[in-house]
Write a structure and sequence with these properties.
Putative Zn finger protein, 3 helices
């Protein structure tokens, strides 16, 4: 049960790109920082950089994180 909580459900159709095992890959949706948000960059210019202290420049996107239970490798699926 703890494996589900930390790593998500087992997906029987995904093949691990590292060890070529099927049926051992767990997937879950997570938020990861990606790139620079244009709106945040504009806000930083308008506020003289003060908004950077509260928000930062990167945007958060939903990605699917996969982890192989056989070899332990992790990767993102966009």
């Amino acid at each position: 049960m703890l494996g589900y909580f930390f790593y998500g459900f087992k997906n029987r159709r995904i093949v691990c790109p590292h060890c070529q095992t099927t049926g051992e890959v767990r997937t879950k949706t997570v938020l990861k920082k990606r790139g620079i948000s244009g709106g945040k960059a504009t806000g930083a210019i308008l506020t003289g950089g003060l908004s950077l202290l509260a928000t930062g420049l990167s945007r958060k996107m939903k990605v699917t994180e996969a982890r192989c239970g056989n070899c332990g490798i992790k990767w993102d699926i966009n």
